[in-house]
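STRUCTURE:
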């Protein structure tokens, strides 16, 4: 009699054996390269065929063979993250919104593992992701550590996996005071301008460099907040001085911004399908691909560092530089202020500088090296 698919099988082994009848199952296991390989496992051996049949029937009567179902039922890294988030939100000791934001960033740093089944992951898979971020701060690595420790504790508790593979990982970071960002050199900026129109997505890097935006700030700028004729964008985050600030558009990148601007798309910077980028997805796909092709070694935040360096070298007005970058400035009373007001920005006179001042100062940044 032919048994149902996925039920298992009874095999009579060759040779003179005391228990020639074997119960065998097959299961799927994901390989390190992401492919899936079918494997077989022998569960028990019997002297008589009917005993083997009874044994297999018991395994399939209301409770599937654990090894047989293990891969199919196991969540992927992304699915486990969502399950863990729901679980943590249900506890009284739910982390703060700021902590959840850090967890989201940390989750993005494990992007190469998002599609992998949890049971197929090995300690080295997690370690490779941690090593790739070792230039980050103690806080960032701490968030990655807390994330995977929490996820695997939850996974073991719910029997998605048997072992906590996070216990012996190394969590290396770059100590505060040690520079973790380096500016693009003049030669590298010249190479970016030279690759414009030849290498995909070089324009985004140049927009980053000449606006001084933080990585997430540029990705979150809405199309409706880009005013090409008036030469400014509205965006920003992180601090009170940085939020909803005026970002002047350097004359050299006007064509680049215009190329990206599409009124039918919500955001200025999108992927080829018009979808919004998160910082992690952008860095792990678009950015890293471009850096590899251009033979460069930089992070997105290096663009902001480069803006500041170019501004200093060009003699940009210090107040304008701080306003453009979204840094708080003390006024005569010693309190912080920022540009703009509640009225129409093009009609508004800024606390210290006008829009024309900001445009004039940003145009000091050189485009020829």
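SEQUENCE:
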């Amino acid at each position: 009699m032919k048994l149902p698919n996925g039920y298992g099988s009874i095999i009579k082994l060759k040779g003179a054996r005391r228990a020639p009848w074997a119960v065998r199952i097959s299961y799927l296991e994901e390989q390190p390269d992401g492919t899936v390989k079918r494997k077989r496992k022998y569960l028990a051996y019997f002297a008589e065929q009917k005993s083997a049949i009874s044994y297999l029937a018991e395994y399939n009567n209301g409770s599937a063979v654990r090894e047989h179902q293990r891969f199919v039922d196991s969540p992927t890294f992304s699915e486990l993250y969502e399950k863990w988030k729901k679980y943590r939100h249900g506890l009284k000791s739910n982390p703060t919104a700021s902590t959840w934001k850090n967890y989201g960033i940390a989750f993005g740093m494990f992007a190469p593992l998002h599609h992998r089944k949890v049971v197929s992951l090995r300690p080295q898979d997690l370690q490779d992701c941690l090593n790739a971020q070792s230039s980050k701060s103690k806080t960032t690595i701490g968030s990655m550590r807390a994330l995977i420790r929490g996820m695997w504790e939850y996974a073991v508790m719910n029997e998605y996996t048997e072992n906590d593979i996070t216990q012996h990982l190394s969590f290396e970071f770059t100590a505060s005071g040690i520079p973790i960002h380096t500016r693009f050199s003049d030669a590298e900026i010249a190479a970016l301008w030279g690759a414009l129109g030849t290498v995909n997505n070089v324009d985004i890097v140049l927009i980053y460099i000449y606006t001084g935006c933080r990585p997430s700030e540029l990705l979150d700028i809405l199309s409706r907040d880009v005013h090409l004729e008036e030469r400014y964008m509205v965006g920003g985050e992180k601090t009170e001085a940085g939020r909803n600030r005026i970002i002047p558009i350097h004359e050299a990148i006007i064509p680049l911004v215009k190329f990206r601007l599409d009124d039918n798309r919500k955001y200025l910077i999108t992927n080829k399908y018009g979808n919004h980028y998160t910082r992690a997805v952008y860095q792990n796909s678009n950015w890293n691909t471009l850096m590899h092709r251009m033979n460069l070694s930089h992070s997105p935040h290096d663009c902001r560092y480069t803006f500041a360096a170019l501004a200093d070298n060009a003699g940009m007005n210090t107040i304008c530089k701080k306003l453009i970058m979204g840094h708080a400035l003390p006024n005569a009373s010693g309190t912080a202020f920022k540009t703009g007001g509640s009225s129409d920005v093009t009609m508004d006179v800024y606390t210290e500088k006008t829009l024309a001042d900001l445009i004039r100062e940003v145009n000091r940044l050189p485009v020829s090296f």
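REMARK: The beta strands are 9-12, 21-30, 36-46, 226-227, 232-235, 245-248, 329-330, 336-337.
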